[in-house]
Structures are given as C-alpha cells and as structure tokens.
Amino acid sequence: AVTRTPLMAGNWKMNLNHQEAVVLVQKLAWTLSDKRHDHAKAEVVVVPPFTDLRSVQTLVDGDRLPVKYGAQDVSMHESGAYTGEISAGMLAKLGCSYVVVGHSERREHHGETDEVVNAKAQRALAAGMTPIVCVGEGLEVRQAGGQVEHCVGQVTGSLAGLSAEQVAGLVVAYEPVWAIGTGEVATPDDAQEVCAAVREYVRASHGDEAADAVRVLYGGSVKAANVAGIMAQPDVDGCLVGGASLQAEEFAGICRYY
Ligand code: PEP
C-alpha cells in the first residue's frame, strides 16, 4: 500500500510585518503542540515572504519546531546578473524544504509560462528542495468544462524533462483560479476530479511508482470548516492555503483536519 504523508502548506503571500511573521510561526507551533497534532497525519509547512525566511529559520532551528518552511518563488537562473532575483541555492542555504512555483498570481501578474515554471522546478530540485508546482483553470475554462484538459496540460509542460524519481518526490497543487481568495471553495468532487486526473497523467507519463508517491494538493479558499470534505477525497493529499494560513488557530485547525 502507498502511504503519502498529507501536506498542509500556508502561503502567506505578501502579508504581515516581520514581527507578526515571527509571532505567527510561534503561535502555530504552540497551537499544534497544545492540540497534540499528529505530524504523521499532516506535515506542516509555512511559506513566508523572502524577507522573513532567516528569522523563521532561526526560530524553527533554535526551538526545534516541528514546522517546515519554504519560499513563494525562486529564480529560473542559477546565479549572476539577475537583479532582484533569489536563487534556489540561496533558499536551500536558508533551510527551505519547499518552493512554490507557478502560483496563479505569478502566472497572471508576471507572465510565467509552463516553460518558466518548469525551469524553476528544475532549479529547486537541483538544490535539494521540493517544488510545489501550481496549476489551475480560470472561470471561463471551468464554465466550458475544460478544467481537466487545462490542468493536465499545465502539468505536462511544468514537469517536462523530469525523471520518474523527481516527479515522485514533488508536489502538485491544483488551485482553480476562481477559488483563490474568493471564498468560493471547489466542491470535494471538483477537487477530486482534477487531482485524480493529475495522478493518472503522472501514471501514464512516469509510471506507477511516481503516480502513487506524488502528492497532489488542493488550494482555493480552504478553511478549517471545509477542509475535512476535501481531505476525504482519495487523490487529495493536502492543501495549499492562502488567507486562512495567516491565523494560527485557523491554520492549525486545517492541519488537524482528521
Ligand atoms: C493560494 O493563494 O494558494 C490560496 C489557495 O489562497 P486562498 O486560500 O486565500 O484562497
């Protein structure tokens, strides 16, 4: 039997000041320990802005907090004259375990294509981090019933050239754009449909082992109150959470979906 440890990742986006960031990580860790969170039931990851990563590292290492952390983006380039960019090597040195690549906000506002997302995923993997590769359809595609085709197309482009072993170790996040930050969560069946299709694509392209190991998350207006139905779906292995990850109690409640 395959066991995929569920993953709950909180994407803070461009929110909180530095002190609030530090307090949030501490509160989250306290709340999880207070409620005796079972980390085998959900790995907990916070994804702060770049400028908070050093402090989060100090907290997590210093207090041995059972929380992992990652970055919201990474450069597609290794190093050099790319003013303003942050390399995968820099993030790995800060102890990041994860890197979100291809979030819909990056695809929309920064013109990131599947080729760019693929290059970023490759950089993350080469530096020993796990990419969380985001895909998802907009409202028009959903209304036309094209969500599976759209998302499988994005996965195909974003994972191009990766080995079965690399795909087995990474994370895909299905985030329908119409559900992000809107309060409109996909139904559990809608989440399952696309997550299952992503896994079946991986099965066809990279084989059974990769398909059974790759973790596929759902993201889009997840809250403590709606997480259980989503997590009950067989092909949903966790959630990528935006707004609700900014409150320690709420995010802890999501982590404790079981
Ligand atoms: C996200 O940005 O990845 C996200 C899912 O946001 P929210 O939970 O706020 O919809």
Could you list some keywords that capture this structure?
12 helices, alpha/beta, TIM Barrel, eight-stranded parallel beta barrel, binds phosphoenolpyruvate
Give your account of this protein's structure.
- By secondary structure, the chain is an alpha/beta fold.
- The protein has one domain (7-255): Aldolase class I (TIM Barrel).
- Helices cover 44% and strands 14% of the residues.
- The protein is built from twelve helices and eight strands.
- It has helices spanning 18-34, 53-62, 88-93, 104-109, 114-126, 139-143, 147-158, 164-169, 188-206, 208-213, 227-231, 248-255; strands at 7-11, 43-47, 68-71, 98-101, 130-135, 171-174, 215-219, 238-241.
- Strands 1-2-3-4-5-6-7-8 form an eight-stranded parallel barrel, surrounded by five helices.
- Helix 11 (227-231) links the parallel strand 7 (215-219) and strand 8 (238-241).
- Helix 7 packs across helix 9.
- It is globular.
- Bound molecules: phosphoenolpyruvate.
- Phosphoenolpyruvate binds at residues 11, 175, 180-181, 219-222, 240-244.
- Pfam families: TIM.
- It catalyses: D-glyceraldehyde 3-phosphate = dihydroxyacetone phosphate.
